[in-house]
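Hi,

I'm pasting everything inline rather than attaching a file, because the server keeps stripping attachments. The sequence lines come first, and each chain or strand is labelled.
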Amino acid sequence: MTQSAQPLVEIRDLFTEMVTFDGVSKVLNGVNLTINKGDLLGLVGETGCGKSVTAMTIPRLVPQPPARYTRGQVLFRGEDMLTKQGEELRQTRAQHIGVVFQDPMTGLNPVFTIEQQMVDAILTRQQSLHATGFFRGWLPSNRERRRQARERAIQLLRRVGIPEPEKRINAYPHQFSGGMRQRVLIAMAISGRPDLLIADEPTTALDVSVQAQILRLIAELVREIDLTVLLITHNIGVVAQLCNRIAVMYAGNVVESGPTREVLNAPKHPYTQGLLQAIPSEDIARGELVGVAGSVPSLLTPPPGCRFAPRCAHATDRCLTAFPRTIAVTSQHEVACVLHEAEAKTA
Amino acid sequence: MTILELRNLTKVFGGRVRAVDDVSLTIEAGATFGLLGESGSGKSTLARLIPRLIEPTSGEIFFEGKPLQNLRERDLRPVREQIQIVFQNPFSSLNPRMTVRELIGEPLYIHKRASGAALDEQVREMMRLVGLNPEHTNRFPHEFSGGQRQRIGIARAIILRPKLLILDEPTSALDVSVQAQVLNLLIDLQRTLHLTYLLITHDLSVVRYMCDDVALMYLGSIVEQGTVQRIFRQPAHPYTQALLRDIPSTDPDQRMLESVSLEADIVSAPWNGQGCRFSPRCPVAQIGECKTVEPALVEVTTGQRAACHLVKPHLVTP
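And the predicted assembly:
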């Protein structure tokens, strides 16, 4: 980490369990992740690796139960989110965090117009602020506040590239395409001028050309407003094109993290290497694609040592029993694998 | 030898939605033909028209030279044994109340090919072939991972030993590491069972990896068609060019986001039914011909055809 970088989020040694009918699933197994101010961090991994649980722990949107935090800290702006409750939690969310969910089809309520939903979102945020006296002594009439919120909504819609926002704001979600709905959700997420935008697979449900438009929009917003983004995706291409940092998760651990270019050009963890090899690219002949053999372990009874060891070609006896520590191979590039112990930088 | 030929195939839903609009294509036996398109382009409708799971509004379908469009349901059955489909979603396309044995063996039972111990033996053989443990015949779909479920879907489709397999987004619900396994399984099966594939997908990298020929659909019609080599190296149609630019490369040094690409989408820039259907979104469309005359699919060079007024055959380097 460079000296000037200021951490906005620091997740330290986070252990999370989920209580299910089949038993206790050890979902997060000591996650360490730092997001600096101004970062565009891509969190990648396959289905069920814990990327959404990790990210949604920051605004505490993971329902408890079934989730149970057994150890660790989630520092956001220096405060531990795991100890916050009730009104204090609402405040932090309203003032500092915006979330865009994966599916633009279900993110909006089909029976309300875009205007109703956006105005409500904007007013709810304001009310959270009023409650603590952020705007105490200044309470315009209800009608005036709704009018102002509508103005703001139109302004936001214009910013995210909805044509004719004055007219389109009266439409219902089904009158919008998937890409436009995702734009509306981004507009709602940034309506409170958050410090952190969490985007959970924002383009997975979209076509490539629309995906490119949305990614361009996110890149523009980051430049324009002072935004830090945590992008959750399973598409490494999206991270390569958009993010300055990447963190790769596997079965509840961050196995590798660092500057995107460094990690993708010289991946250190066998899982990251396997993941990159599994993507069909121009120079791979038919039948020569190498996947990652085997499948993801059950988190009800995870492997005791390195969770990737059962699928790893380089695994030794030690990997099967001892959990690997995180090693810094360069100043910012970290990997959790015993193969790179020799390269460890002495602090 | 041509195994499948479609001539001017059209499907109109509700009298006005032209989901498949005048599509003609031929697939050679043993080849893998890729059908690319965004959601709503009509590719899945086209897949279902081929074995007449839905009835075409007009046009002709020839399977091994035999016309299918006028066959009675009874005569269609033996043809359907030859044309099987693997569906997209391995979570919803398998009946959760059926065991793997019932799921994979069902086609044999329906087409009265085998029963009892013979059926069991064939099911176990299929499971071995697609890389499933044959001891798991009595398990239910929920006990398998997504990749394994898609293997069940494949086993079910190939147990009748079809000649043509229609793969409708076979890996889009899977993670990349599992996708690689399933794609390689499909390649192996094609070699051992001499299958012809019609692979429907929106993923250009899957087409590049798997296919010999490719057709791009836009709003129900083919806008460009040709060999994979040709089209990925030198796309002629502005739509193909834009799609190829918009695949996010895993190489951080290739800057995709800095290039200008397509505006709007199929819904927000609707086609008014006149001229080129891509013109509302086309970055190079011009007033005149593009807005008034629908371009025909014409050969631009050997092994490549495109439907665009602006593509001048003599300007394309061979």
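Chain B touches chain A through 47 residues (CB under 8 Å).

If the labels don't parse on your end, tell me and I'll reformat.
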